[in-house]
Design brief:
Radius of gyration: 21 Å
Number of strands: 12
Order of helices and strands: EEEEEHHHEHEEEHEHEHHHHEH
Number of helices: 11
Largest sheet: 12 strands, mixed
Shape: globular
Length: 336
Amino acid sequence: MTASFFEQPLNVPAGIAPRLRCPSCRGVLRTVSAADVHCVDCSAQYAVVNGTPILIDAERSIFTPKEIIATYEAERRRPPPSALGRLAWAVASRTPHVTSYRRQEIIAQRFADLLASRMKAPTILVVGSGTEGIGVSALQAIPDATLCEFDVYLTDSRMLVADLLDLPFESGTFDAVVAQGVLEHVIDPHRAVEEIRRVLKSDGLVFSTTPFVLGVHLPVADYTRFTRLALLRLFRRFKPIECDVVEGAAVSLAYALAYFWMALLSSFGWPAGAKIAKYSGNYLIFWLRWVDGLVRRSPVSIDAAASYYYVGQLSEATLSDREIVGMFKGLGLCPW
């Protein structure tokens, strides 16, 4: 297939740029301008901002390039925080957290080790990267690895802006796709997984983490929660390697308590009370993440996990529902 061609440099890694495709028709992309790229096949045009292409089809996506650029420009115009604001953030950022970051780092490192043992110089797509995610450093440490990261919003360091539902890449581009804390924010996760499948090579690996017992955690675009079996079914066209608990019932309890305190303090017509409860309440419950190291070994934690992870390999076979049901590992015991 003909490679894309860019006379102007892009922030996308050099080995990946020729495999960029139009998100609308998957046609070949060309550019002779620093401000836009266009599709040779359907003539669609896409903006480029400071070397970052915004490859989103506004007709198919809930995100629009105009809004993405406008938000980026508004952020750049925002004045620096006041001394009081900087002090408040310094205090808030040092608040103890209830999330088990160490556990997440261990799982991400295990996936990086698996990928490095199977493939030399892998190409890795990091989906919904936001700021640098947990475990990305482990992927970067793989010898000769090439990472391409994207999200649906623009920053000065963003490689690419795209929508997971229409990935702007040629089929079979990547050795691995990493999507940590992403699929719950996608309006159609089944379509998203099919896109992940499409851009993977025939022996490609996928690594995904998703919350289960956790409330809404973004102002917009938080749609879905998956049980462990639902996660296995979502990736039914993959061969599962691991699918287990990231954080168990103790972290689920910590999350529930945090939401309760935020709801309580904001229920008297005082919206700021939620933020005060968020940061101050963690001092009372942060220790639950240590208890979680014990309780997540229980089958009950599989049923009431705060989050799960999935590692799988692309497969020509599709898991049947009977096979998926046979993979149940929990207890299924209701507390009432």
